[in-house]
Amino acid sequence: MRRFALAIGIIGAIAFAAGAQTRPDEARVFAVPGPTIAAAPSTPPASKEQPSKENGATRESTGVASDPKPQEPPVAAKTIFGAAATPASLAARSIGFYSRGCLAGAVAIPTDGETWQVMRLSRNRNWGHPKLVAMVKRLAGEVAAKDGWQGLLVGDISQPRGGPMLTGHASHQIGLDADIWLTPMPNRRLTPAEREALSATSMLGKDGIHADPQVFTPYHAALIRRAASYDEVERVLVHPGIKKAMCEEKGVDRTHFHKIRPYWGHHYHMHIRIACPPDSVGCRPQPPAGPEDGCGKEVDDWIALLQRPPKVAQPGAKPSPPPKPVTLADLPPECRLVVEADGDDGRDHKPGKPQDARGATSR
Ligand SMILES: [Zn+2]
User: Fold this and answer.
1) What is the pLDDT of residues 71-121, one digit of tens each?
2) Alpha helices in the chain (DSSP H)
């Protein structure tokens, strides 16, 4: 049996952490409370994400208390999930919440398709719930066919078993989030080295707040609108300057603008989130985006927030202690099964399916 080898995994995780690039903007997605303006993104309050009796924390701590020997601190969940090189060979299921959960039965989007190329292959984060992977493929095909794009550069999706990551991203844990670069795919195959080194293009101008119309064009806006138009897509996160530029564009269909949410960062890429698949028992949905298009006061409040001078720490003020690492016990109990399950090669074994779900397991 090919049990998940923790020891080897940890070594791999350390090597992986050393090679990965952290994107601080991503780390804040859903990790911090939204701004205090009324139009804050509908992020669940942080308290809902805390360990609770239901998720096994109590059972875990009882075990610790009854053992007279001093205990090693528990391994951080990001170390365990960051070391998993293959998906759990279980039925596909997104478990928990976008920023506190894991993923069973993940499939990989192939690193190359006719209309997409996956970036940063060393990260091994091109895994998602089959529904999410299907959505990315559909988007890549449709923007190429209808919106003048050559194709998409695909950023991080999830790790093979989802879960917290060693670097970047508070969410992306249950295989329902995908980052798509706003840099168009070039008209050639990038080499693996280029996929590591190529920088994405910021859509912002010199002020770092508003979109640069020379860079962010109607062509980019069409991509974002198309992603938001899909039924399964609940949110597309973009920088407030991008949302503002989209609101100012004349003569475009705003039917799905309510799903295009301004958020910190997200000027190099957009973040697409799909709804909990109906058969993913234990997937916790987030409230749907309201019906408003978010243009006007909402986006203006965001711009004003970005224009506010940053807070300066008071001299002598104590820095806040680092947050306690999330452990396996803090995740839904089923995530333990995901960790312990046999590995898979990431192929979709359903009959009649092409083998294009094969992942980058050789990396
Ligand atoms: Zn993202």
Assistant:
1) 677 899 999 999 999 999 999 999 999 999 999 999 999 999 999 999 999
2) 6-19, 24-27, 57-65, 77-83, 130-146, 192-197, 218-229, 240-248, 297-307, 334-340
* Burial (Cβ within 10 Å: 0-12, 13-18, ≥19) of residue 47: exposed
CA 178, 262, 23, 282 torsion: positive or negative?
negative
- The pLDDT score that the predictor gives to residue 316 is 83
pLDDT band for position 302 (cuts 50, 70, 90): very high
DSSP state letter for 36: S
pTM above 0.70, yes or no: yes
H/E element, 238: strand 233-238
Q: For 210, how many CA atoms within 13 A lie in the half-sphere containing its CB?
A: 10
Distance between Cα 8 and ligand 1 center (Å): 28
CA 71 to centroid of ligand 1, rounded, Å: 35
Distance from C-alpha of 166 to C-alpha of 169, rounded to nearest angstrom: 9
Assess whether pLDDT exceeds 70 at residue 173.
yes
For residue 289, report the phi and psi dihedrals to the nearest 5 degrees.
Answer: -65, 145
231-248 residue pLDDT tens? 999 999 999 999 999 999
Q: Is 60 helix (H, G, I), strand (E, B) or coil?
A: helix
Contact 238, 266 (CB under 8 A): yes
Cα separation of 161 and 9, whole Å?
13
Within 13 Å of residue 227, how many CA atoms lie on the same side as its CB? 30
CA–CA dist 73, 301 (Å, integer) = 43
Q: What is the DSSP annotation of 307-329?
A: HSPPPPPPTTPPPPPPPPPPBGG
Amino acid at 273: R
Interval between CA 33 and ligand 1 midpoint (Å): 16
Give 266 Cα–ligand 1 centroid separation in angstroms.
Answer: 8
